[in-house]
Specification:
This protein is an alpha/beta fold. Helix 6 (about 150-165) packs across helix 7 (about 180-190) and helix 9 (about 225-230) runs parallel beside helix 10.
Length: about 700
């Protein structure tokens, strides 16, 4: 499909793999999308700035880069940043189109329905989009797609008007006569509010007057405060809505000056935030923020998981705001004919965005057109090839060909750079990701043959030797089984499974009569690190059992983050510790006991603050302290191994020291946790150079079952 991608100050039409419908979402064939002149153009301008200029403007990101360099090294940090810059980013957040498919759990929307949809990074300028249900609004019968594609801008304007909370006959000043300002003007008029509008563009002010503004103001020639004072009978307006986009703080200061004592100023747009105390204190003003389309915005449970707010308690969610906007446009009170200046095809997206940069009066609203599909075309749209060819280099058969499933931060920041270091052993052959743009960008960066959003493309490709699964935890087991059943070797990032039922299905596959069963490897990398290998040289020579103490200062992650779901952080991360302990002890676990913290406040959870004791059949004991309440200044991982009057101390996979035992006291600048070495070990198995798997199935299953019981 064709999608608009922002790269180095320009917007380009690029061919990327089209999405497939996902659970809880709706697959839409886009007919029209609306360009947001303020938000999107600022993003385009930002993408064209040099790294140095970005650093000066966003010093908080410099700190992130410094931390990345400390933890990953200069070369890896540079490659990660450069990869993101070269890939560009999708843009757009307001579309209308026809439903092609409804995902699992969607019952109130069906193929053929006309809908509008919202969401930055979701409802992009693209031929196809996959949008969660709560960000999809059904279009009123008879409403055209062009009008409906403005839905997100309408939702933003409506939420700003609701935040102003004005009554019949009250007075408001709208500062900024762009799309949102002119939509807000019309909504205020419908509510019986008297409205003045301010802007630097006389053409836009003329439109505002046509749409019902009682007074128009141009700050380049009008004294805004004085005119608002005269208009309001020397009282000041009841409220001001700031819908402009500027880095200056002066227009916001003018808003404060135009409202009455105890009045309200609502920030809908973007402003400099140097607020003068004298502007707000004497009049005891309320300064309010309007968050995008309304309640539900930026709430993952609402937007991604589809959990609606109760109607009786939250009357106007973002979905209900945008649904009401569509009704008002359809029934006639909100007029768009004077706002839409031009329509371009998606192939002309570069020209469409550049039209905002031309000298003279700037367009208000520009739409993109993708063509309206006919019902007879739906099947073809759903079944079309989602593969996008990237490189046609000869495929050497003496290396292991990898298909990456899930091009997230860990895969692109760790696994792919390591694979690139081993060109005589591995080659990235294909990339599959939920979003096609990311799949293509990663594939291009690492010279893959193709990118796709369709897992079947990977499973049906005879050239794929190894499927590397790096998706969210709850998807692992299902993807593993499909790959194994297709005869593909699998490297799955931990965890292997998130519940016992999933694990039992994997175990059942290997107990079945299926011939030539593929290799299964879970990314329990700690045991392969040079540190663990050195420790094991000595623990293998022990007479008595081991006593291991392992501290993982895991760090705080907000409790609404997805890592707390499906087994949480113990199943998803503490599994590393269980696996390492088993590798050193080389015995089966006979008992697991757990104590957990009981926090006094809701910030912390007992689920990721636990003390765990593992008892092994050979008499060894492992004590694990996994916690999220520790200091960021403390190293993340620390292990003590005690046996036969000897002690070995590992600090964060950066240093190793022995007491009573002569060891190779390794030190490294960055944590070396075995991610590269695990690839080397897996290669030896895949090529038949070493019998047996790097980690036995019983071992991987034991670790998984132990963490599930914890």
């Amino acid at each position: 499909m064709i999608q608009a991608i922002v790269k180095k100050g320009r917007v380009l039409a690029e061919k990327v793999p089209a999405p497939v419908v996902s659970s809880g979402s709706v697959l839409i064939k886009v007919v029209n999308s609306c360009i947001s002149a303020g938000t999107e153009l600022s993003g385009v301008a930002g993408s064209g700035k040099s790294l140095i200029k970005r650093a000066l403007e966003q010093p908080e990101n410099v700190k992130k880069v410094i931390n990345m360099v400390k933890s990953e090294g200069i070369a890896r940090a540079y490659a990660k940043i450069q990869g993101k810059l070269d890939a560009g980013s999708p843009t757009g957040y307001s579309i209308a189109g026809v439903v092609l498919a409804a995902g699992e759990g969607i019952e109130d929307i069906k193929p053929g329905d006309y809908v509008a949809a919202a969401g930055a990074g979701i409802a992009n300028h693209a031929e196809y989009v996959d949008v969660p249900r709560n960000l999809v609004m059904r279009m009123p019968e008879g409403l055209d797609f062009k009008s409906a594609s403005t839905v997100t801008l309408g939702g933003i304007a409506m939420q700003g008007v609701r935040r102003a909370d004005l009554r019949l006959g009250e007075m408001a000043v709208v500062v900024g006569a762009g799309i949102i300002g002119l939509l807000a003007l019309q909504m205020l008029k419908l509510s019986g509010v008297r409205v003045a509008v301010a802007d630097l563009d006389d053409r836009r002010l003329d439109i505002a007057r046509e749409l019902g503004a009682e007074m128009i103001l141009n700050p380049s020639r009008d004294n805004m405060g004085e005119m608002a004072n005269i208009w309001s009978g020397a009282h000041g307006a009841d409220a001001a809505l700031f819908t402009a986009a500027t880095n200056s703080s002066e227009p916001l200061s003018q808003c404060f000056q135009m409202v009455k004592k105890k009045g309200r100023v609502v920030l809908v747009g973007v402003s400099g935030m140097e607020i003068k105390r004298d502007d707000i204190y004497p009049k005891e003003l309320d300064f309010l923020i309007s968050t995008s389309y309304g309640p539900g915005r930026y709430d993952m449970k609402y937007e991604e998981k589809g959990l609606d707010y109760p109607y009786a308690y939250v009357r106007w969610t973002e979905n209900r705001n945008m649904t009401e906007y569509l009704r008002l446009v359809h029934s006639g009170p909100i007029k768009l004919d004077r706002l839409i200046d031009a329509v371009y095809s998606i192939e002309q997206v570069t020209e469409a965005f550049e039209s905002f940069q031309k000298p003279g009066s700037k367009p208000l609203m520009v739409l993109l057109d993708y063509g309206k599909p006919e019902p007879a075309q739906f099947a073809a749209f759903l079944s079309h090839d989602r593969k996008v060819a990237l490189h046609s280099n000869p495929v050497p058969r003496d290396v292991v060909h990898i298909a990456l499933i899930g091009a997230g931060n860990f895969a692109t920041g760790m696994h792919l750079p390591n694979i690139a270091k081993l060109p005589n052993k591995y080659r990235l052959h294909a990339v599959m990701n939920r979003t096609g743009h990311k799949a293509k960008a990663v594939g291009q960066q690492y010279q893959a043959s193709y990118a796709t959003t369709n897992y079947d493309d990977i499973l049906n490709d005879s050239a794929v030797d190894l499927v590397l699964i790096a998706t969210r935890h709850d998807t692992h087991a299902g993807l593993i089984l499909k790959a194994l059943q297709a005869g593909k070797n699998v490297f799955v990032e931990k965890p292997l499974a998130t519940n016992q039922e999933e694990l039992d299905k994997i175990k059942a596959f290997y107990k079945s009569d299926a011939p030539n069963k593929p290799v299964l490897f879970t990314g329990f990398n700690r045991r392969f690190s040079k540190y663990a290998v050195e420790i094991k040289k000595h623990t293998d020579q022990r007479i008595n059992p081991l006593l291991i103490r392992y501290r993982m200062n895991a760090g705080y992650i907000p409790l609404d983050h997805w890592v707390h779901e499906n087994g949480g952080r113990i199943v998803g991360e503490a599994c590393h510790i269980v696996d390492l302990a088993t590798a050193l002890i080389n015995s089966t676990i006979t008992s697991v006991s757990v104590e957990f913290l009981t926090p006094k406040t809701d910030k912390y959870s007992e689920s990721d603050n636990k003390a765990i004791t593992l008892k092994y059949a050979d008499g060894s004991v492992t004590c694990i302290e996994y916690f999220a309440i520790g200091s960021k200044d403390l190293s993340k991982e620390f292990m003590e191994v005690h046996f036969d009057g000897k002690s070995i101390i590992l600090d964060d996979y950066k240093s190793l020291k022995g007491y009573g035992v002569k060891i190779n006291e390794i030190t490294t600048q960055t944590s070396q946790k075995g991610q590269l070495e695990e690839l080397l070990a897996l290669y030896e198995t895949l090529k038949g150079n070493k019998k047996g798997w790097p980690i036995g199935l019983w071992d991987m299953a034991q670790t998984t079952e132990a963490t599930l019981s914890i």
